[in-house]
């Protein structure tokens, strides 16, 4: 009766209290179109970063083996442009032009040119504590480790690959064709390595990358140091050194034949005198030499 009297007086209730809602059995309020539109215009959704930094993924805290880096205080921008924060940058939305510009700007100074440029994604990675023989610094690069103008490295552990099987594919696709040497540095940190290592190897080979496996953070750091140190060195340092004198070349030519050793080279050289005479000799002439049996004669012939 009371509600009818209120309705007859012309003052209909437009809003109920929470107590009345609970008494009526939990009435759900449906927002209007204007309210939804106003909320969407006022606050925009934050972009989601599916692959955060190393420390965020593995929940690293301060310990004797790892000390979180101090927050860097950036100077206020002089111009009117404001750079977006790193966390709000989508991980897979960079183009080739933006990537090449970031590489050139990151390695502009001479100090950065002689140092490994480490992506901010790798903050908290214990591998950085083992980079002692070369300088390194954080920079805004697409890859995990920028080792030179034409070489880079991506870091992944098998434990992380089991959690995110598609992570390596998207990271390689993000590099595009900006580097001549693209290294995938895989940290083997699980006991059963058959299936995950096969998947990583397959992905690496299909995208023309070089796979390097390390069983500890120290070994992975050693790989990065070696790649940086030998960045500008020619291939002569790892090529076999060939002497120019005749005896060395004569020995190298004959020992390349199976079952022929250096003692046989001395015997053949004393008997025939030169390589051309050995090539013109018959099988009977070769068999007369001491130490040259039937099997060696067949390989020489």
From TrEMBL:
Biased composition (Basic and acidic residues): 16-25
Protein's UniProt keywords contain Methyltransferase: no
A Pfam cross-reference name: Rad10
Record InterPro entries: ERCC1-like_central_dom, ERCC1/RAD10/SWI10, Restrct_endonuc-II-like, RuvA_2-like
Record GO terms (molecular function): damaged DNA binding; single-stranded DNA binding
Subcellular location: Nucleus
Alphabetical keyword list: DNA damage, DNA repair, DNA-binding, Nucleus
Family: Belongs to the ERCC1/RAD10/SWI10 family.
Descriptive protein name: DNA excision repair protein ERCC-1
Organism (species): Musa troglodytarum
């Amino acid at each position: 009766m009371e509600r009818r009297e209120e309705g007859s007086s012309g003052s209909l209730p437009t809003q109920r209290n929470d107590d009345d809602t609970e008494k009526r059995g939990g009435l759900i309020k449906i927002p209007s179109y204007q309210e939804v539109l106003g909320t969407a215009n006022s606050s925009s959704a934050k972009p989601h970063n599916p692959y955060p930094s190393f420390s965020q993924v593995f929940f690293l805290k301060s310990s004797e083996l790892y000390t979180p880096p101090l927050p860097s205080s950036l100077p206020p921008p002089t111009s009117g442009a404001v750079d977006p924060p790193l966390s709000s940058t989508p991980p897979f939305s960079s183009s080739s032009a933006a990537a090449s510009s970031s590489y050139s700007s990151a390695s502009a100074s001479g100090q950065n040119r002689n140092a490994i440029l480490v992506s901010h994604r790798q903050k908290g990675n214990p591998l950085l504590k083992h980079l002692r023989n070369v300088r390194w610094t954080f920079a805004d690069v697409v890859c995990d480790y920028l080792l030179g103008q034409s070489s880079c490295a991506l870091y992944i552990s098998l434990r992380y690959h089991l959690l995110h099987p598609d992570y390596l594919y998207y990271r390689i696709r993000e590099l595009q064709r900006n580097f001549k040497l693209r290294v995938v540095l895989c940290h083997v940190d699980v006991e059963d390595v058959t299936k995950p290592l096969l998947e990583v190897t397959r992905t690496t080979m299909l995208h023309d990358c070089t796979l390097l496996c390390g069983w500890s953070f120290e070994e992975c750091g050693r790989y990065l140091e070696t790649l940086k140190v030998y960045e500008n060195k020619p291939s002569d340092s790892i090529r076999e050194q060939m002497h120019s004198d005749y005896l060395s070349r004569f020995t190298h030519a004959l020992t390349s034949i199976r079952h022929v050793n250096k003692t046989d080279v001395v015997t053949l050289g004393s008997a025939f005198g030169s390589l051309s005479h050995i090539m013109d000799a018959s099988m009977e002439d070769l068999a007369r030499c001491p130490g040259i049996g039937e099997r060696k004669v067949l390989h020489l012939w």
